[in-house]
């Protein structure tokens, strides 16, 4: 460690958002740390976020990390047993980490300003879910199919100029359908544009959104009943194949009262995609681009599954699993805050990797290493011209100049 000033350490800068006054007041209000002398809520969250970033595989491994004198000094905790961590994980209220997650989202939003990608789009929200498989014999509360268990993260991401940020999260057993969470995830604001997949199709909700002026775009199922009201003109040479005004649903049962817009386009593989929306003002090409932004939420799920520890869980209870998933989202937000604090424009993964080696170093040292340019750059793998080598060797043999070929140190690539 290069400095004694722990207040200016990278560790302190990373975990500084946890010490916000709002979160501290919540802990006091809920009396989370009442009668707690050692493993306070903040220290526990720091331990769990650290475990996420380091991808530690068990509570025992988390406990053993306190043998690291620098880590122990930074967290101000000499030791803690894995059984104490297990009890804390089971007993701590999920509302505590949910509130911290929302507070971190607010902090990131304040620093970025949530500048939209395009001003005319307003606030763009991406909504989707992802299932994490669980062993049904160990997690019986998470029954999904006959021989399979799972837990589902229902997520709303906010898309802005500098990327995406989780804006709201709901964690349920995997059996719950996506559309049951629409009330919690769809932003009912006139300056919002909600984008979600066909798992969120609900004609009654769509009618409500039309009446309230809430814009949305989704993908239509193949077996949907569609009544074409009007064909709209399509620009020649456009990626849009059809643009129609339609009414969805079956007469007397699910038929919508409000018309929607049906736009047919293609994905990158040439497969047809039908997008429905209640926005009749934007060009069809613009609607197609908006729906393609939905892929960002798939990339987000892929990132957290690869680089945070959410495929295996430290405890078997539903509450503990939910806690771990929320803490993973907290860890992501904290990486985002570090990225904003340093002004770094590179990948978030580089910050996570560098934190592992510079966590106890002074923060300026971490920033210096983050911006360090490589001393030499690779020119890539050399391409060998085999035909030229053959022709040169053939010429040497014909000319009687091939004695050097018996030399074991001869490299024919270097001519």
UniProtKB/TrEMBL annotation:
GO terms for biological process: DNA transposition. GO terms for molecular function: DNA binding; transposase activity. Residues 124-334 form the Transposase IS4-like domain. It holds the Pfam family DUF4372. Keywords: DNA recombination, DNA-binding, Transposition. Residues 7-66 form the DUF4372 domain. InterPro entries: DUF4372, RNaseH-like_sf, Transpos_IS4, Transposase_11. NCBIfam families: transpos_IS4_1. PANTHER family: TRANSPOSASE INSL FOR INSERTION SEQUENCE ELEMENT IS186A-RELATED (PTHR33258:SF1). Belongs to the transposase 11 family. This is Transposase DDE domain protein.
